[in-house]
Every structure is written in structure tokens, then in C-alpha cells.
């Protein structure tokens, strides 16, 4: 499932390419025809994410809420212009360009397809980056918008860019009041609200229950956006046993977790990858940007020696999700 950084990146793509323009909406699949008709032809006035959910506001007072879930993904085609804050994220999955820039082999770093499952998806054409930094041409073919491929729930077209949504868990039209209700049920997201109040809310909700802290961090009502990867990596970085009851985590530890989430989420949005190892330079940085196994401490490293102490990384199931941790470092 895409974690919070991916959804923020999608929202920034929409802000850069769609906000301020009238949007033509359709549902090639046919499952969202009525909803698409409610917003089609209206200007998109805002796009933002809270955790794993994205909200698109239209000038007629209606909103579209999207939750990608496990299988959802957005594909972009056309003359995509990137927000400068994510311009460092290069596009084609698992390849190297003529200048030797290493691209992500695990599909976390694509300009034209953001979501899950990513590794098997195809990008839509070639790309070039401007010396002025942020324009990427991704649809050199003669037809625009391109013919829909697969089960496209929602297609949005504006400003020379086409965005196709496939396989979301949720795609619905809401009023402003309904959007407020949805957001009120979510935990804080530091990219949406980085205030001291948001930090205090996270600490209070995390420490409130006696469930394992590894479960609490995945609860979107406690904190929005953290998924399986960030959960495992953050707990390792904090040297916290994922099975420790959350109400036995200290307030200082909880505050440190929040600050680490602020940091890691910002890195993920900028680079397009869930980079969780600090201090990498040169070749090590390139390897980590290209390959998940070189940028994580414990995630998907079961049976391999811990990078710190040499103990084999453990794998278990926690609340139906895979859990990775070091039994020695995280006592």
C-alpha cells in the first residue's frame, strides 16, 4: 500500500499541473460516471493529502476523495511539470539514463506512475528534464489524451496533462462538511499540520492504549500516513521493541518518533523513496536510491544480520501485516 509520502507527491503533481485549470473528468471504466459528471468542467482549486488520502477541491464546492488502498495507482501522461520540491525524483523505474543517474529498481521513484503495485506498471513514454529544471515530456505520441489502458476508474484532463486512476479503495464526491468529517477522524500528518498541537495529539493518542506500539503506529487515527515500511524503520531507529505496549512508551520517546516522522516524510516526498538510513554519501547514496535493500535498516531484511549488531533480523506477523525488527537492538 502506498504510504504517506507517495500520496503527498501525487497531490503536488496535481497542484502543479491541474490547480487553476478547468478539468474534464470521466470514468472510462464506468464505475464513477455520475461522480465524474458532478465535477467535470469545473476549475480545480486545491489538492492536498492527509496521510494516505488525497482530496481534490473543485470550484463548484464539491470535492473528490481518493484512497489508493493496496492496489490503487495514478498514471500521468502529457507535458508533466514537477513541483520544485520533488524535482530531484527521476522517472523511469529500474533504469539508468544516459548521464548515469541511477533510478529506483523498486518502483518508488516514477514521475508517470505513482501508487501500488508499482513494479509491474509501465511508464507512458520517454522523458526529458529541462535545464530550467522541472518540465518532463512523457507522451510523445500523436494522440492526446492517450487511449485508456485497463480499468480506469477516473480520468482527469487539463492543461495538457492526463491523470488516470486505477484500483482505488475509495473514490467519491463529497461536500466540504463531509471532507471535514473524514479528516477529523484521521491522526495528525506533519505535512498537513506541523504545529505543536499536532505533535501533542500524536503523543496523546499513541500513549493512550496498551496495544503494541507496532500496531498503534499503523493506526491512521493515531498518525496519518505511516505504513509497514516506515513503521519498521522508525521503531528500529528509535530502538523500540514493536511489541512494547504503547502506554509504556515514554513521552520523550513518543516525541522523538514524531520528529523522526517529520524528517522521514519530508525526505520521502522530495526523493520519491522511503529513505531511512542517514549519512549516506556518493556511491552509497546512489545505491540506496536505486535499491531498497541499500536504504533500509530492517524492512525486508529478515534472516540477514542487523547492520548495527549482527543479530539476524526477525520477521513475524502483527495485525495481518509483516513486521521486521532486530531482537537485540530493539529490546
Which H/E pattern describes the elements?
HEHEEEEEEEEEHHHHHHEE
CATH architecture of the largest domain: Alpha-Beta Barrel
Number of self-contained structural domains: 2
Number of strands: 12
Question: CATH superfamily name of the largest domain?
Answer: MutM-like, N-terminal
Helix content: 25-40%
Report, as a whole number of angstroms, the end-to-end distance: 28 Å
The proportion of strand residues reads: 15-25%
Short description:
This protein has eight helices and twelve strands. It has 331 residues and is α+β, with helices and mostly antiparallel strands.
Question: Overview of this structure, please?
Answer:
The structure is a single chain. With 331 residues, this protein is an alpha+beta fold. It folds into two domains: 4-181, N-terminal domain of MutM-like DNA repair proteins; 188-325, Helicase, Ruva Protein, domain 3. Helices cover 26% and strands 19% of the residues. Strand 3 (53-58) and strand 4 (63-67) form a beta hairpin. Residues 87-103 and 117-140 have low confidence and may be disordered.
Amino acid at each position: 500500500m502506498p504510504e504517506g509520502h507517495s500520496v503527498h507527491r501525487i497531490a503536488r503533481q496535481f497542484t502543479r499541473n491541474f490547480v487553476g485549470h478547468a478539468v474534464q473528468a470521466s470514468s472510462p471504466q464506468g464505475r464513477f460516471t455520475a461522480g465524474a459528471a458532478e465535477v467535470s468542467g469545473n476549475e480545480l482549486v486545491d489538492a492536498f493529502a492527509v496521510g494516505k488520502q488525497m482530496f481534490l477541491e473543485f470550484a463548484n464546492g464539491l470535492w473528490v476523495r481518493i484512497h489508493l488502498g493496496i492496489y490503487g495507482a495514478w498514471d500521468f501522461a502529457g507535458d508533466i511539470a514537477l513541483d520544485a520540491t520533488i524535482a530531484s525524483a527521476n522517472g523511469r523505474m529500474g533504469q539508468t539514463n544516459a548521464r548515469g543517474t541511477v533510478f529506483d529498481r523498486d518502483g518508488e521513484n516514477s514521475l508517470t506512475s505513482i501508487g501500488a503495485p508499482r513494479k509491474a506498471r509501465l511508464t507512458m513514454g520517454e522523458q526529458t528534464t529541462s535545464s530550467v529544471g522541472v518540465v518532463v515530456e512523457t507522451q510523445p505520441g500523436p494522440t492526446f489524451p492517450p487511449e485508456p489502458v485497463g480499468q480506469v476508474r477516473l480520468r482527469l484532463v487539463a492543461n495538457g496533462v492526463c491523470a488516470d486512476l486505477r484500483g482505488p479503495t475509495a473514490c467519491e464526491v463529497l461536500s466540504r462538511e463531509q471532507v471535514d468529517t473524514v479528516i477529523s477522524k484521521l491522526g495528525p500528518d506533519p505535512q498537513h499540520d506541523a504545529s505543536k498541537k499536532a505533535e501533542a495529539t500524536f503523543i496523546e493518542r499513541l500513549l493512550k492504549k496498551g496495544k503494541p506500539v507496532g500496531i498503534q503506529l499503523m493506526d491512521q487515527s493515531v498518525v496519518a500516513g505511516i505504513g509497514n515500511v516506515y513503521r519498521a524503520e522508525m521503531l528500529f531507529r528509535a530502538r523500540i521493541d514493536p511489541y512494547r505496549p504503547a502506554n509504556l512508551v515514554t513521552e520523550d520517546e513518543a516525541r522523538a518518533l514524531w520528529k523522526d516522522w517529520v524528517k522521514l516524510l519530508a525526505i520521502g516526498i522530495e526523493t520519491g523513496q522511503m529513505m531511512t538510513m542517514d549519512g549516506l554519501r556518493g556511491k552509497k547514496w546512489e545505491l540506496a536510491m536505486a535499491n531498497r535493500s541499500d536504504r533500509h535498516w530492517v524492512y525486508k531484511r529478515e534472516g540477514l544480520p542487523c547492520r548495527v549488531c549482527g543479530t539476524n533480523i526477525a520477521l513475524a506477523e502483527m495485525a495481518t501485516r509483516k513486521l521486521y525488527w532486530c531482537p537485540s537492538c530493539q529490546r
